[in-house]
Write a structure and sequence with these properties.
Length: 548
């Protein structure tokens, strides 16, 4: 179910899409589209446990979910008309005092600023609950607020803390003194909350990074972590069914207004899935979700323009900076394997101090939404890019780290040539790209460094790029699909381009794409490449358009 938009909204088609407000009450009272997540909220509030934590990347609906919980415990049943918790359950909507803190907007300039703003947040919650507080340490004030609210109402309190880790992940250059101060401040605050657990009906905390039992959060060992719980795999973001239920009408209107762009609604959904779906948050569930900000921006005013929306609104500067300090080029074409312990023992205080191992960086990229779960076994999670939106933007940032050349301009030139099937232009662009990277990238004398760099370029171009593409008689080094063209490459180093082209034909690498090409009116282009190890470029190429 969803609360659908009404006459006060500005969109055509899918009404009332909004991505920059996170108040549940605002969504409902202003008739904005709300994708119903109250079935997950109900499971939490009726659980025999009452202290919960969840990690998800930014802009995945955590704040809206927190606001939904706030309204539930505020007893505002009327807001939930038509939604699961009101229509499908007998939940009582008993009113409790709610303490709702958001740490995403602290001013991290000095100890004084941090202390003053936390004081202000606690005082604001005290005022909302009709409790008078005297100034003191945040821990003392929180203790007085909890007990004061219970005394005033006779009901246990509900505590919601949103973006607990933002003070440690939002700024890349926090000084050691400020980090140490915040570590002590938050440690004492959470110790107080745990000590007051008898006064607490329900506690819910969100962040990007999972909690560990180390450092500042050692006091919070009573939290039930639902971050990778299969029951909540679809709680944040939109599932495939939610996409079709809530945006299907908009898809129909767009297709009707723009005939001929897609052969069918299924093809349109397939392209949306390719760009924005693929986030998997539980190794025990196959459920994948779309980023809600990307989907909201995509359908806004039914423009349906494929763009990198989430990257422009939700990334952490610290994550990007840390990631570019490590040699992560292999993730462009490989699935890094990360031990599960790297996720459960992640110490957030070391994040701010930048004392991280490579596996910690992979875990951090997962938390930030750049990587997601591909597969798993008992001890290991294998990670990959979730979709084209993420792979292209992160790969471009990663490649830009290694060169002063305008990588995005090169990417644009090669993409334009690929769209026009201008092979000479593509080769020239690829050579310009290869020459912009330092010599040590090509110290290995086999095809691997050339292949990695070329594959990275194709990923940045937002096409379908498949390294080591398996066929019935072998593996093509690279298949790249963009627009109406399917390019199949075989690479040789200091060899013959003609030999590489002949290998493509003899091993029938193109066979698996013939039906696609015939059905969609595409061309298949076979290209043999010979790289010069001394010149670090494509020295020769042979091409052939396959006759269908």
């Amino acid at each position: 179910m969803s609360s659908n938009a009404g006459e006060n909204n500005y969109n055509d088609g899918v009404k009332g899409i909004i991505t920059d407000r996170f108040s549940f009450e605002y969504f409902i009272t202003n008739d904005f589209l709300y994708v119903d997540k109250t079935m997950y909220a109900y499971e939490l509030v009726e659980s025999d446990k009452n202290f919960f934590f969840v990690s998800r990347p930014r802009r995945f609906g955590k704040s809206l979910f927190c606001s939904t919980l706030h309204s539930i415990f505020d007893g505002k049943r009327d807001l939930f008309k038509g939604l699961y918790i009101a229509e499908k359950t007998d939940y009582s909507f008993e009113k409790h005092p709610v303490i709702h803190l958001d740490f995403s907007n602290l001013t991290l300039i000095s100890e004084e600023f941090v202390l003053s703003e936390i004081h202000g947040k606690i005082l604001s919650e005290a005022d909302s609950n009709g409790v008078s507080l005297e100034s003191g340490t945040p821990a003392m004030m929180m203790d007085s607020l909890i007990k004061g609210a219970v005394e005033k109402t006779g009901k246990q309190v509900v505590i919601i803390i949103d973006e607990f880790d933002s003070p440690f992940t939002s700024e890349p250059d926090l000084g050691d003194d400020l980090i140490g101060y915040m570590r002590k401040l938050f440690n004492s605050l959470y110790k107080t909350i745990k000590a007051d657990s008898a006064y607490i009906r329900f506690f819910f905390m969100t962040g990007c990074v999972r909690l560990s039992n180390l450092s500042i959060f050692s006091a919070m060992n009573n939290l039930y972590d639902i971050s990778m719980d299969r029951r909540f795999a679809g709680a944040f973001g939109y599932t495939e069914k939610e996409l079709e239920d809530n945006f299907g009408e908009g898809m129909d209107e767009y297709l009707e207004a723009n005939p001929g762009i897609y052969g069918s609604k299924e093809e349109f959904i397939g392209r949306i899935r390719d760009y924005y779906d693929g986030y998997r948050f539980s190794p025990d569930s196959e459920v994948k979700v779309y980023n809600p900000v990307s989907i909201g921006r995509f359908f806004d005013r039914l423009e349906c323009k494929f763009d990198n929306y989430w990257e422009k609104t939700g990334v952490s500067r610290m994550v990007v900076e840390l990631a570019t300090k490590y040699d992560l080029l292999s993730i462009v074409e490989e699935e890094p394997a990360v031990g599960k312990g790297s996720f459960t023992s992640f110490d957030i205080s070391l994040l701010a101090e930048k004392k991280l191992r490579v596996n910690d960086i992979y875990a951090l990229l997962y938390y930030a939404g750049y990587l997601t779960i591909s597969r798993s076994n008992e001890y290991t999670l294998y990670l990959r890019f979730p979709n084209r939106e993420v792979s292209s933007t992160f790969s471009t940032s990663l490649m830009s780290r290694y060169t002063d050349t305008d990588v995005e301009s090169i990417i644009g030139n090669v993409a334009e040539a690929a769209d026009a099937c201008d092979i000479e232009g593509m080769i020239g662009g690829i050579n310009t790209y290869l020459s912009s990277f330092p010599y040590h990238f090509y110290e290995r004398k086999d095809e691997r460094p050339f292949h990695t760099m070329m594959h990275g370029l194709f990923v940045c171009m937002k096409g379908d790029a498949y390294p080591e593409d398996a066929g019935k008689l072998g593996r093509a080094d690279e298949v790249f699909i963009r627009g109406k063209h399917i390019y199949i490459f075989e690479l040789k180093v200091d060899g013959e381009a003609g030999e590489a082209l002949q290998q493509i034909k003899e091993r029938h690498y193109a066979d698996k794409y013939i039906h696609m090409a015939e059905e969609k009116g595409m061309e298949i282009i076979l290209i043999g490449l010979s790289f010069s190890s001394s010149e670090r470029c494509i020295a020769e190429w042979k091409e052939e358009i396959l006759e269908l």
